[in-house]
Amino acid sequence: MDGDAGQQGGQAAEPPTLNGGCFCGKACFQAAGPVVMVYNCHCTICQRLHGAPFARFVYFAPGAITPKAGSEEFVGSFRTSETVVRYHCRVCASPLYGEINPKGFECTCCPLTALERGPDGRVLGLEGLKPMGHNYYVHRVADADDDLPKNDALPPGFESLDCGKMYPHC
Ligand SMILES: [Zn+2]
Ligand SMILES: [Zn+2]
């Protein structure tokens, strides 16, 4: 992580910032919109680290997700592959977010389940965060009973997508 606590300008036209955090509440983050895409990941790393058949991720531009003030010391990280660094709460071990930097593709993402919830327990803005498909489906431990695209690895064109170029203001 960088140690840069940059100030964001309060321009009215900017997309909303989403809030998220861990189970115990020590590690909170903010994700500067817009949301670029939403995918389910069935890779074996996500299965093990999330303790679930798959993890649903919300993707943002590079650098869009940062710890909130006071949360930095509770955010731990480790590299899970050559191109992915994952961040988690040092206290409760909840997955927080990740940075992906393969060649030609850069983004940050967080599990949809880490995003802020309303009083009813539902993730805020859930209706606008529909998944676009299943990635690494070849490694699935459970079938997905839906009509979304099922990709053996990443979807076609994913590797060449540059979220930073799509949203240079982020
Ligand atoms: Zn925690
Ligand atoms: Zn994965």
Rg over alpha carbons: 16 Å
Structural class: mainly beta
Kindly estimate the percentage of residues that lie in beta strands according to DSSP.
25-35%
Regarding CATH, which class? Mainly Beta
Q: Helical percent range?
A: under 10%
Query: Distance between the terminal alpha carbons, to the nearest Å?
Result: 17 Å
Per DSSP E runs of 2 or more residues, the count of β-strands stands at 10
Provide the residue-averaged pLDDT: 88
| Separate helix tally | 2
Give start-end ranges of low-pLDDT stretches.
Answer: 1-7
The ordered string of helix (H) and strand (E) elements is: EEEHEEEEEEEH
**Annotated CATH topology:** Metal Binding Protein, Guanine Nucleotide Exchange Factor, Chain A
Largest sheet: 7 strands, mixed
Which term fits the overall shape? globular
In the CATH classification, which architecture applies? Beta Complex
In this entry the ligands are: zinc ion
Number of domains: 1
**Strand order in the sheet with the most strands:** 6-7-8-9-4-3-10
